[in-house]
Design goal:
four-stranded antiparallel β-sheet, Ribosomal Protein S5, domain 2, alpha+beta, 9 helices, seven-stranded mixed β-sheet, Alpha-Beta Plaits, about 280 residues, about 30% strand
């Protein structure tokens, strides 16, 4: 059977409102997500279950049973040799592990294994990453509503500081916040203006834990053409939105010169479902 290649795009929380907490401790969210044209890649081929982690961001990523990729394969009952190329920094608030797990499930489906139920047990972000297109995610993340968004040229920056999601939620001072308003139909308003009125409720506690996030946001806001800068997820990755791809590319160049140790990337946020589901194959012989 040919080797299968699968794309795992970065997920960006354009807004993230924390609206409550269930009795079991899970937080209730109302979030708007989009996906980037860059991310991790996986290769799968038949064989005993195994995981090899490579790539520029592989350092510290476990290759044992605790990795979400192997947990996803076990949930699907799929045996495969998997190579994971890590291009996204770990624990960075852009859904890298969840997107990797979702990509593994798509790859296993291409090999003939059924997509399992209960993927939210792997993590709240896994269901939305299975079909990486813009969506409003409510509840603990599995209540998904596809939405139409305009193309959003963006720069993503991570200062290479890991922020633990549980710590951010523990530092949250208010867990009963307003939900997102209704998302306006595409083309009816200036979307970035509308988005600027929304929030990431995890941004203040994350900045208290990792003050460098202040610096990242200030750096993004100082780039010419930046219309909105905000933290994604539980951090520490932040994003900035621009009117044009040229402005985003110029901002990326400026940031890489000023902060060469930071991880950064740019691209147009939106629907990556076609790229993620177009598995490429090649012979292993």
């Amino acid at each position: 059977m040919p080797r299968i290649e699968v794309f795992a795009p970065a997920k960006v929380n354009l807004a993230l409102h924390v609206t409550g907490r269930r009795a079991d401790g899970y937080h209730l969210l109302d979030s708007l997500v989009a996906f980037a044209p860059f991310g991790d890649r996986l290769w799968l081929e038949p064989g005993a279950a195994s995981l090899t982690v490579t790539g520029p961001e592989a350092a510290g990523v476990p290759d044992g049973p605790g990795n979400l990729v192997l947990r996803a394969a076990a949930l699907a009952g799929g045996a495969a040799r998997i190579v994971l190329q890590k291009n996204l920094p770990a624990a960075s608030g852009i859904g890298g592990g969840s997107s990797d797990a979702a990509a593994a499930l798509r790859g296993l489906a291409a090999m003939g294994f059924a997509l399992p139920k209960g993927t939210e047990g792997l993590g709240a972000d896994v269901p939305m990453c299975l079909v990486p297109r813009p969506a409003r995610a409510r509840g603990i993340g599995a209540d998904l509503e596809p939405v139409a968004l305009p193309p959003l040229p963006a720069v993503l920056v991570n200062p290479r500081v890991e922020v633990a999601t549980p710590a951010v939620f523990r530092a949250l001072t208010c867990r009963e916040n307003p939900s997102l308003p209704e998302i306006p139909p595409a083309g009816t308003v200036d979307f970035i203006d509308w988005l600027s009125l929304q929030r990431n409720d995890l941004e203040p506690p994350a900045m208290a834990i990792a003050p460098v996030i202040y610096t990242v946001l200030a750096t993004l806001r100082a780039t010419p053409g930046c219309r909105l800068a905000r933290m994604s997820g539980s951090g520490a990755t932040c994003f900035a939105l621009y009117a044009t791809e040229a402005e985003a590319e110029a901002a990326l160049t400026r940031i890489r010169v000023a902060h060469p140790s930071w991880w950064s990337a740019c691209g147009v946020l939106g629907d990556q479902s076609a790229a993620a589901t177009a598995q490429r194959t090649r012979s292993t012989t």
